[in-house]
Write a structure and sequence with these properties.
Number of strands: 10
Order of helices and strands: HHEEEEEHHEHHHEHEEEH
Largest sheet: 6 strands, mixed
Radius of gyration: 30 Å
CATH topology: Nucleotidyltransferase, domain 5
Strand order of the largest sheet: 7-6-1-2-3-8
Shape: flat
Structural class: alpha+beta
CATH class: Alpha Beta
Helix content: 25-40%
Oligomer: single chain
């Protein structure tokens, strides 16, 4: 029997290993890893920005507030529509439940005021008030009572919402906690496309947390801009000495100062 020698053929469809095959493989793996890292980083960054909106802690506190009460029988609660936004400027806005220094507390009230048009029909006109709440005002009660500054330092900004609601007699529609005064930056959002907000407003988002959605924050800025900051009714919430009844029936000061709720609410139009 004759045996033929088996011939070897080179396959053209299979790459031939070369001296740089391993090096190329490593380079490809590195490129893929870097690309994956960039994509994951961008997704994480976007998620981080979005979580600064619709903050769960602030939403919970907004929902726990009490309704406005009549503090003086000479007045009644306005039936007009109001949007009332609490702005807390703090040293650290990264954690709503972490104690931090508060440097400013303001309430922006957008009031849809009924007016009569030239043709006799009734329409509404937006007017705005900006009330500054003193940091040495008492909030809380009993053993938990403290000045606003001390309360925020001990409990964090989210915990201040409900006590401030009671202390001011203003039920806040929304809350913004920021590391600086951001009202003008919020107003600058007027006309922004909500779908592009996350991408275009990075600097602002990194400074604040709020219970509002993107659309609500943009709408707030648009409405406030329509009024104009120069037209705001600017109010400093007045303070009065807190008193309690002594054993002999006389009034004794507690050492705290409290917000004069009637004076504040009449000055911003929520009591009429």
């Amino acid at each position: 029997m004759l045996f033929r020698k088996r011939e070897r053929f080179e396959r053209t469809d299979v790459p031939t290993p070369g001296p740089y095959t391993n090096v190329i493989g490593v380079v490809v793996l590195v490129v893929v890893a870097v690309a994956l890292f960039v994509v994951v980083g961008r997704v994480a960054d976007r998620v981080g920005k979005e979580t600064r909106l619709e903050d769960a802690d602030l939403s919970k506190q907004v929902g726990k507030q009490s309704s406005m009460v009549v503090t003086d029988d000479q007045y009644s609660i306005s039936q007009d529509a109001f949007t009332k936004v609490l702005f807390l400027t703090v040293a650290d806005a990264s954690d709503m439940e972490k104690g931090t220094q508060v440097t400013q507390a303001q309430v922006l009230l957008l009031h849809e005021k009924p007016v009569q048009a030239e043709d006799g029909s009734e329409t509404t006109q937006t007017v705005a008030s900006l009330a500054t709440l003193p940091l040495d005002a008492k909030i809380g009660s009993g053993d938990d009572a403290a000045t606003l500054a001390d309360y925020c330092a001990a409990h964090g900004p989210a915990a201040c919402v409900v006590p401030l609601n009671a202390a001011s007699n203003i039920k806040f529609t929304h809350v913004v906690v920021a590391s600086e005064d951001v009202l003008e930056q919020v107003m600058a959002l007027a006309g922004t496309d909500p779908s592009k907000f996350i991408k275009e407003s990075t600097a602002l988002l990194m400074k604040l947390r709020t219970d509002m959605t993107t659309a609500e924050l943009v709408d707030l800025g648009t409405r406030a801009t329509g009024v104009g900051a120069e037209n705001f009714n600017r109010v400093d919430a007045p303070l009065v000495a807190e008193t309690t009844q002594a054993d002999d029936g006389s009034a004794a000061e507690t050492g705290f100062q409290v917000i004069d709720r009637t004076a504040l609410c009449t000055s911003v139009g929520t009591l009429v």
